[in-house]
Design goal:
The structure is a homodimer.
Chain A (H helix, E strand, L loop, with lengths): L4 H10 L5 H10 L9 H14 L13 E4 L13 H16 L9 H6 L2 H5 L3 H12 L4 H14 L15 H12 L3 E9 H4 L3 H5 L6 E12 L5 E11 L5 H9 L6 E4 L5 H8 L6 E6 L25 H10 L2 E4 H4 L6
Parallel strand pairs in A: 1-2, 1-5, 2-3, 5-6, 6-7
Antiparallel strand pairs in A: 3-4
Helix pairs in contact in A: 4-7, 12-13
């Protein structure tokens, strides 16, 4: 355990309460209790030790300790469908109510019909029309209110729980552990930056300013009382996937991460960029190989194909050849959800 | 003085050294020693007290304490010319050396001629060509190295000191004071984000990830050894001036500031946006009315016209009518530079 200002304070405060220090020491013995012992868990512990122990040759000053985490499929469940896409479909009735002329225009007509088979066949172009109509055109404050309301009432179809409860316990342990060692934890997601920022603090302890995501422009203007507000524009500024992840990290953080965590081909460039830095770097990919406790998909290692969170065999092979750590959900995690 | 974890630790560590606590208390008595007593200084102290004292009806939780600072003319000297523009002109010979065909192309030919009168007459279009040629096309790492080298050797023509030493002592006191009270301090500048990030930590204690500035896109690629790198592209993503400041704040921080500091018409929208939030908000504008210790320019209040950091009478009147605080460099500051 490193004696930082923060944990020194924790210890001195804890000492006031009888027994508290004992409990703290127990917790400190294993910061990752939901991980099975083995090389994967050891890789995380070794990396954090090597970069935060002042005696280590690979010590990293606290100000440079940046760790980036993909969200969908890395920090929480992404199957059968990204939660933000569910949000967009759920918003269509409200959009059509506000603009009744859309009721007879595709793809809104199909979505309103409730014909699931027809909805499943919508093209990417149609999907983008739905995203544009449900994610832009409103004020930033209105979008925040709509999102917050949806997050409170929406339930995942399998677990019947709010999406924000479907976070992976082992990963929240990694977040907490790394922060306790002076790492600044960032989400770097292909999901919408404004969307994820609504719950990142509550779900992960990650504040809005540490969320990098796909981002559109906003437009500054004034309401009829002269009060300024920002409107979400259908203008893409950052597509935070693939090469967009290191580009977004440079734009929003301005430093190369020392550790990066992902689970799909969209994270490949972020991991490459992270590992290309000097000194000790950690790159990890989560393989969803646990159909019982969560889902199994790849197609790496013969797992079923998927369009949501694709993990190709090529990515798996690159990971193995370059010393990136592949986490097996089935074998490395004692538990998955809280 | 609020008892946060950080200053509790400071105090307990200080107590080990005889007399240290006494000195700390003295410093705590006046966190803004370079400010003259009066309504301006009081406005800052009152604001910070109102938003950080748990007993206050206008208390703001620590996670929401965001303060944004324009840089040029607010945190450091911007006259006679923005330092980044000086950098760009200084870089022209190296650019022409790398691409000799530019020697006979305008505006590079004029810059290389050394004819100051002709250079002063260059159009905005010519200026943008110089900015594009000197700020894009190279790797992010190369740009950082070039900038760092220039910052070490360049000297301001009046004070013969590095630009990074021309920061305003009263403003660095505000930064330090606000951070000691749990505020996260950000630079929000019309200057180049990548440029300012090279020295913000050293000059102001503001890390790169807390610098929002005018930003261009980057492009991810691989060198001949397969090592990934980012190239600075001539593609503007954020023009962080005027309405671009609140837009940039939303993009990069995702929260509305509680306090904002500026000095020119380019900061107007940031201050409006800040003040439009609920609860206690602070908006401040620095008026350069001190030709002796620094410079005097407006044209507000009959001060000389300028194109560098224009502070119009309309902005001055808006400030007065809306309760924004106007800082007089001449009357409010005991000293200007360190």
């Amino acid at each position: 355990m490193e004696f930082t200002r923060r944990n020194l304070f924790k210890i001195s405060a804890g000492a006031v309460v009888a027994g508290a220090v004992g409990r703290l020491s127990m917790a400190a013995d294993d910061p990752l209790p939901s991980w099975n012992d083995g090389p994967t868990k050891k890789a995380i512990l070794d990396f954090v030790h090597a970069t935060t122990d002042r005696m280590s040759s690979r010590f990293v000053p606290e100000s440079e300790r940046i760790a980036t985490f993909d969200q969908d499929g890395t920090l929480w469940v992404e199957h059968p469908m990204y939660s933000q896409v569910v949000y967009c479909f759920d918003r269509v009735p409200a959009v059509v109510k506000a603009k009744p002329e859309l009721a007879n225009v595709e793809p809104f007509k199909t979505v309103m019909s409730g014909d699931r088979e027809a909805v499943a066949k919508l093209s990417m172009e149609d999907l983008f029309k739905i995203l544009a109509a449900t994610l832009t055109g409103m004020s930033v404050d209105q979008f925040a209110a709509d999102t917050k309301h949806w997050l409170e009432k929406a339930r995942d179809p399998r677990w019947k729980r709010p999406y924000t409860e479907l976070t992976y316990v082992p990963m929240t342990e990694v977040l907490t552990f790394m922060r306790s060692k002076g790492y600044k934890t960032y989400i770097v997601t292909g999901g919408g930056q404004d969307f994820v920022r609504q719950y990142s603090e509550k779900a992960y302890g990650i504040p809005p300013e540490q969320v990098v995501g796909t981002a559109g422009g906003t437009k500054y203007g004034y309401d009829k009382n002269g009060r300024p507000f920002l409107t979400k524009e259908p203008k893409l500024l950052l597509n935070d996937n693939n090469a967009g992840k290191p580009e977004g990290i440079h734009m929003m953080i301005g430093r190369r991460p020392f550790a990066a965590f992902g689970n799909s081909t969209g994270d490949k460039e972020m991991l490459e960029y992270t590992k290309a830095g000097d000194g000790e770097r950690l790159a990890m990919l989560l393989l969803h190989d646990d159909s019982e406790r969560e889902y199994a998909y790849g197609p790496a290692q013969g797992l079923p194909e998927t369009k949501v969170g694709t993990f190709t065999q090529a990515l798996y092979d690159e990971a193995r050849s370059k010393g990136w750590v592949v986490v097996s959900m089935k074998n490395d995690w004692k538990r998955v959800l809280g």
